[in-house]
Amino acid sequence: MGFGAQPRQRKPDNARPAGPEWGYGAPARARVGFGAQPRLVEEQMEREIDNLVTQYESRGLTRRQLVASLAAMVGAGSTSVRAARQVGQVAQGRTINHVSLAVSDVPASAEFYQQLLGLDVVSRPTNGGINMGLSDGFLGVYPIPEPGRVHHFCIGVDDYDADRIKGRFDEIGYEARVSRDPANRTSGGDQLYFSDPDGTMVQLGENGYQG
């Protein structure tokens, strides 16, 4: 991969392979979030549906427009439902420990960031990635499907213990998973992952973890 090459066009999101991808694995996207109360969301949707039906009956909307509007509301409503539940604290976040990128050519990408930003390699896990140091964190480049995107980022937390924090996730009813695969790290113990309400994969780790 040349440094001067044109950026690769990304495939649409719906073209990404389903299920686990690459060594870290993709945890199921837990769809719980924050904000509005469920009953208020339901009442708002009822009013909007009633308004659409009234417009349709008065011939202010065609059948096609009614169906399209209701379909859009269903999509927006699922997001509102995801945003209707409060969650409790599972750990105390302190730092952005690292960002892991999906790339098409790991050595070339690592060389690019080394030359551009003066980074040094701090670890090479056996899953094929290369991690370059950034203060007490790092930037990782990995041979993950659909290159040209952030695969996940990691937040450094106080008193990191994967199993203890997973227990806190279980207590609040939010899905998380612990990876015990040693190929995914050179230090730091087991890794914990979860997805935020929009599906972004997040890892938790100890402060100063170097991959």
Supply database-style keywords.
211 residues; 2 domains; 8 strands; eight-stranded mixed beta sheet; alpha+beta; 4 helices; 22% strand
What is shown here, in short?
The protein is α+β, with helices and mostly antiparallel strands. It has helices spanning 38-57, 63-82, 106-117, 162-172, and strands at residues 93-102, 121-123, 130-134, 137-142, 149-157, 177-179, 191-195, 201-206. It has 4 helices and 8 strands.
Structural topology:
Elements: H1 38-57, H2 63-82, E1 93-102, H3 106-117, E2 121-123, E3 130-134, E4 137-142, E5 149-157, H4 162-172, E6 177-179, E7 191-195, E8 201-206
Parallel strand pairs: 1-4, 5-8
Antiparallel strand pairs: 1-5, 2-3, 3-4, 6-7, 7-8
Helix pairs in contact: 1-2
